[in-house]
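tool=predict chain=A
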Amino acid sequence: MTQRTDANSDVRTITLTISGMSCDACVRHVTRVIQGLPGVRRVAVDLRERRATVECQSGAADGAALIAAVRNAGYDAHVDAPRAASVPAPTGGPAAGRGCGCCVVPPEGD
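tool=predict ok
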């Protein structure tokens, strides 16, 4: 996770690496999920780079909340920090572990 706080405001930028996205519908799904979190101001999801850049209010959504939301939507997200392991696995949803639902994404390792 890359996190940067703008010295002139209460906005910080968090960058997540996301796997499991395979089409533009996946990008829209991840974008909607992240935008729905409190304090999120802007989201840019890049399918090719497998990254989401999120601008949010300081003290609002944090890396763990973003990761949990993305995982609950059926994708994997991670950070390069030890605390990423404490985020719970996906709990369900219509396409848990399978991407956006309009494209069938085989589980990794198959």
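Helices lie at 24-35, 63-72. Residues 28 and 41 are 16 Å apart (CA to CA).
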